[in-house]
Design goal:
It is built from 18 helices and eleven strands. The protein has about 400 residues and is of the alpha/beta class. The radius of gyration is 20 Å and the shape is globular.
Length: about 400
C-alpha cells in the first residue's frame, strides 16, 4: 500500500478493544461527531481524556457525560471556570490541564492508546507531535500538523512506532482506495473539492461577499475557519500538501477536481487508466469511525447513499483565477524537499489563519485573504525549520507580520 507517513497498526491492534481514547478538540464539529460514534459503540471505546479551547460549557457537559479522568483547556481562566462548573458533581474530580503543554501531556498519557487530533489550525501541532513521540495510534483530523511539521511527525513515528490514520474525508477516501494495491500501479491521487458556497463566481463578484455568506457551505457542517478555507480553496491547497506527506507522491501527481455534490470523496488513478473512487453520504462520522475502529467498518448511523436519488455526479477543473489560494499552496509544495521542514509552508498556514480570522471579523475582504498570504510568502526569508521551536517561532513572526498589514 502506498503510505509513507507511518506504518499501519499490527494484528494485535486489530483485536484490541475497548480502545482508550483522547479527544483533542472535543467541542468542535469533529469532536462532537467522534463522541456520537463512541456513544453508538460503548463496548468498543473508553474516553480517557477530553481537550477543548475555551468552550467551557460544552466541555463541562461532555465531562459530566463521559467522566474522563483528564481534561484540558486553553488558558487558566477557562480551567478555573471549568473546575467551578464541575464542582457540584459528586465523586468526580478530573485533572484539568492548561494550554499547549496540557494538550501534549494528554496526548502522551500511558493509559491512552488512541488520540484523535481535531483541534483547529497550528494549535494542534504540539498535541499531535506528542502523540507521535509516545507511540500512539493517531486519528488525524488536523491537516496543519503535517503541513507545518510532516518531517517531524514522520521521524517521531519511525522512532516510536506510532501510527497515523487520516480522518479528513478526502485523505481517508484515498487511504481506503489504496488499501491492498501495489504502489507501483498508482498514477495520480485526485482530491475532490465541493467548490464551497462561491463556486462559479468571478473575482469581481467575490469582492463583495460577506463572512456570513462564506459560512453557508452547501454540503458540510464544519467550523468557521475550515468553512472559509473551503470557500477560498485554501482547504484543498493544504490537503494537497498533506497528501504529499501522507503518501509520498510527487506534487505534480496530486490533482484537484471540483465535485459539487460531495459524494465522491476522492479518487486514485492507476497506470491502466482505471480509477478507484470512494463514495458516500457527506458525513464526517464515516471517516472518524473508520479510523477509530480500524480496520473494522462500524454502523455510524449515517443515512445510506442512494445514487438513484442523486441522479448525477459532475466534475470540473478548479478556477484558480478566482480562487488563487490553491495555487499558492501548490507553489509552496513545489519548493519542498522530502524529509525537511518548509519555512514557506509555515508562513502559508500562519498567514491564512490570521487573514481568515480578520475576514470573519469584517476587517478585510474575501479577496484580501490570498493577497495577505502572497505578501507573507514574498516576505518570508527564514531558513527551513528543523525543530518544533523553529516552527513556532516562524509561525509567531508571520502572524505578527500579517497582523501589522491589517491593523
Amino acid at each position: 500500500m502506498l503510505y509513507s507517513i507511518s506504518s499501519l497498526p499490527g494484528q494485535d491492534w486489530e483485536r484490541t478493544f475497548p480502545r482508550t481514547v483522547c479527544l483533542l478538540g472535543s467541542t468542535g464539529s469533529i469532536g462532537l461527531n467522534a463522541l456520537r460514534v463512541i456513544a453508538a459503540h460503548p463496548e468498543l471505546f473508553s474516553v480517557v481524556a477530553l481537550a477543548a479551547g475555551r468552550n467551557v460549557e460544552r466541555l463541562a457537559e461532555q465531562a459530566e457525560r463521559w467522566r474522563p479522568a483528564w481534561l484540558a483547556v486553553q488558558d487558566t481562566a477557562s480551567a478555573t471556570a471549568l473546575a467551578e462548573r464541575l464542582a457540584p458533581l459528586a465523586g468526580y474530580r478530573p485533572e484539568i490541564l492548561v494550554g499547549q503543554t496540557g494538550y501534549a501531556r494528554l496526548a502522551a498519557l500511558p493509559e491512552v492508546s488512541t488520540v484523535l487530533s481535531a483541534q483547529v489550525g497550528a494549535a494542534a501541532l504540539r498535541g499531535t507531535l506528542a502523540a507521535a513521540q509516545a507511540g500512539k495510534v493517531i486519528c488525524l483530523a488536523n491537516k496543519e500538523s503535517l503541513v507545518l511539521a510532516g518531517h517531524l511527525v514522520r521521524d517521531a513515528c519511525r522512532k516510536s512506532g506510532a501510527v497515523v490514520l487520516p480522518v479528513d474525508s478526502e485523505h481517508n477516501a484515498l487511504f481506503q482506495a489504496l488499501r491492498g494495491r501495489d504502489p507501483q500501479t498508482v498514477r495520480t491521487l485526485v482530491l475532490t473539492a465541493s467548490g464551497g458556497p462561491f463556486r462559479g463566481k468571478s473575482r469581481e463578484e467575490l469582492r463583495a461577499v460577506t463572512s456570513a455568506q462564506a459560512l453557508r457551505h452547501p454540503n458540510w457542517n464544519m467550523g468557521a475557519k475550515i468553512t472559509v478555507d473551503s470557500a477560498t480553496m485554501m482547504n484543498k491547497g493544504l490537503e494537497v500538501i498533506e497528501a504529499w506527506h501522507l503518501y509520498g507522491v510527487p506534487g505534480e501527481r496530486i490533482t484537484v477536481l471540483v465535485h459539487p455534490q460531495s459524494i465522491v470523496h476522492s479518487l486514485v488513478e492507476f497506470e491502466d487508466g482505471s480509477h478507484m473512487a470512494h463514495l458516500g453520504t457527506p458525513d464526517m462520522r464515516v471517516p472518524i469511525a473508520y479510523c477509530l475502529a480500524w480496520p473494522r467498518a462500524l454502523d455510524t448511523g449515517v443515512a445510506p447513499l442512494r445514487l438513484a436519488d442523486i441522479k448525477s455526479l459532475t466534475f470540473e477543473e478548479p478556477d484558480v483565477q478566482s480562487f488563487p489560494c490553491l495555487d499558492l499552496a501548490r507553489q509552496v509544495l513545489a519548493g519542498q524537499t522530502p524529509g525537511q521542514g518548509s519555512a514557506a509552508a509555515v508562513a502559508l498556514n500562519a498567514a491564512n489563519e490570521v487573514a481568515v480570522e480578520a475576514f470573519l471579523q469584517g476587517r478585510i475582504g474575501f479577496l484580501d485573504i490570498p493577497d495577505r498570504i502572497a505578501a507573507a510568502l514574498d516576505a518570508c526569508s527564514a531558513p527551513d525549520p528543523a525543530t518544533l521551536e523553529d516552527i513556532e517561532a516562524l509561525d509567531h513572526e508571520t502572524r505578527r507580520f500579517v497582523g501589522a498589514t491589517i491593523e
